[in-house]
Amino acid sequence: MSEQTGKQLSKEEKDARFEAELLPVLDPLYNFAYRLTLDEDDANDLVQETYLKAYRFFDYFEQGTNAKAWLFRILKNSFINEFRKKSKQPAKVDYSEVEGYYNSDDVEGEGGVATTTDMRTESVQDLIGDEVASALNALPVDFRTVIILCDLEGFTYEEMAKILDIPIGTVRSRLHRARNSLKEKLEKYAKSMGYNS
Amino acid sequence: MESKFTEAAHQKLSEDGHESECDKIAHLLDLMIDGEASTEEQSYFNTHIEECVPCFESHQKQKLLKGLVSGHLKRVIVPESLALSIKARIQETV
Question: How many whole angstroms separate alpha carbon B63 and alpha carbon B72?
Fold first, then answer.
């Protein structure tokens, strides 16, 4: 696809290029997978599957183009095509479980110390975050998806259209409905913050 | 004293079955907070909300909603082992 054809690259070179271009997306990709599946193990599997697919099709990936959008698209398709069927019912998530995990001391010594300390500093921030997370998790997966892509990952409508394989008009209307739905769920909380709906 | 705000006038526009100005503004809300509005749309929007309280408030609410997700939703931490197992599986792949 690019000037240097994939065939010229040794496996080592290809692997190095793959890691350099695509592994930096691991964090947002895992977060996206987690928000879709609401399960850490499922997110783990989904992300691995995504990278393996990406590796298989890496020759078609044009260097320097939007690696993040490309991987998100592969992950989203994997989720729809195979994963959704076999994954555990993602209807509910016990967010306190996730909380417990990150606040526990077990994770120390595994390199996560700085982040976990960060996460428990502001209890008020935590409360808001929990409220938003449970409202978001209660949305249908299509609604959750557009909100994550737009508000958390900052994709443009055009990128979202490509990731989701839908027209921009559909991105807009879905996002609009998703936000209305989220607004409804957060209403109670919002009122307590003096935000009259 | 002349009212500073003319929301009533804007809302009346829908009587003839056409979209009222406030309806048009409502359709631009997401574009505005997502930075997807054209320059023309932006100036149309900003001019309107300067004099229309309900639309001004809707805009504030929509910004707040987006901010709740972007600013407060916690990111989950990627398990340390994940990058390693991806690299390992790729190296096995021919």
Answer: 13
Range of the structural domain that residue A48 is part of: 1-90
Choosing from A61, A90, A119, the residue where a domain stops is: A90
Integer angstrom CA distances of residue A179 from A94, A163, B30, B67, B93: 22, 19, 9, 12, 42
State the smallest CA–CA distance between residue A80 and chain B in angstroms.
21
Instruction: Determine the pLDDT at residue A171.
Output: 97
> Which residue of B34, B38, B80 to mutate against A (max A Cβ within 10 Å)?
B34
Domain endpoint, select from A90, A117, A149:
A90
pLDDT at position A185 over 60: yes
pLDDT at B17 over 50: yes
* CA–CA separation, A40 and A23 (whole Å): 19
**Residue of A39, A46, A47 to mutate for B, most B C-beta atoms under 10 A:** A47
- Tokens standing for A5? 């054809």
Task: Express as a percent the part of chain A with pLDDT over 70.
Answer: 71
The number of domains in chain B is 1
Asked if the Cβ–Cβ distance from A195 to B72 is below 8 Å, we say no
Domain-located, residue A97: no
Residues in B touching A133 (Cβ below 8 Å): 73-74
The mean per-residue pLDDT over the stretch B61-82 comes to 93
Which tens digits make up the pLDDT trace of A41-88?
999 999 999 999 999 999 888 877 899 999 999 999 999 987 666 655
